[in-house]
Amino acid sequence: MSSRTIEYGNLMHAAMRGLIRNVLLDVEENGLPGDHHFFITFNTLHPDVEIADWLSDRYPGDMTVVMQHWYDGLDVGEDGFSVTLNFGDSPEPLYIPYESIRTFVDPSVEFGLRFETQEEGDEPPADMIEIDEDDETPEKDERPKEAEIVSLDKFRK
Predict the structure, then answer these.
(1) What is the pLDDT of residues 8-49, one digit of tens each?
(2) Low-confidence ranges of the chain (pLDDT < 50)
(3) Which pLDDT does position 94 carry in this prediction?
(4) What is the rounded CA–CA span in Å between residue 145 and residue 157?
(5) SS3 state of residue 32
(6) Environment class of residue 28 by beta-carbon count within 10 Å: exposed (0-12), middle (13-18) or buried (19+)?
(7) Amino acid 69: pLDDT
(8) For the chain, first and last CA: distance in Å?
């Protein structure tokens, strides 16, 4: 008998990260189609995340960014992507490794992915409702819709 097991949770996470990369590659080449936009929550404490000091001070843990009306310099790589986003009229470059992503949501089509990690312990996953859009209230029709989230907890031992 072999003690080797198939790591379905890890394989699913790799596939989900590949899906995010493919979506971002398409956006890099062709722009955001129609009403598509993304809410991306990531762990600011991940060692490969690159954000301005004031952002890491303001968001010591999880941070949600929005790619919608204005973004610049989207550069999608093997392990992560860089993009410049506007924070209260202050453009800031970010580098977000795929492994740091906690949730990826496109509310325009009610699509969402959530990455559960064993290291989080009892910490609840990122809340999909509390989206920080630089303290601006979105227009009524721009509010995020509820997204169906795929959770992988049931596949973990």
Answers:
(1) 888 999 999 999 999 999 999 999 999 999 999 999 999 999
(2) 120-157
(3) 95
(4) 32
(5) coil
(6) middle
(7) 83
(8) 19
Please, how many CA atoms are within 13 Å of residue 84, restricted to the half-sphere of its CB? Answer: 7
- Residue 69 carries which DSSP code? S
- Strand 148-150 and strand 111-114: pairing? parallel
DSSP structural state of residue 91: E
Distance CA 104, CA 150 (A): 10
The tokens describing 120, both together, are 């989080």
Three-state secondary structure call for residue 82: strand
Q: What Å distances lie between residue 35 and 16, 29, 32, 61, CA to CA?
A: 22, 17, 8, 29
- The one-letter amino acid at 66: V
According to DSSP, the β-strands at 91-97 and 148-150 are unpaired
Long-range contacts of 133-137 (CB under 8 A, 24+ apart): 133/66, 134/86, 134/87, 134/88, 135/88
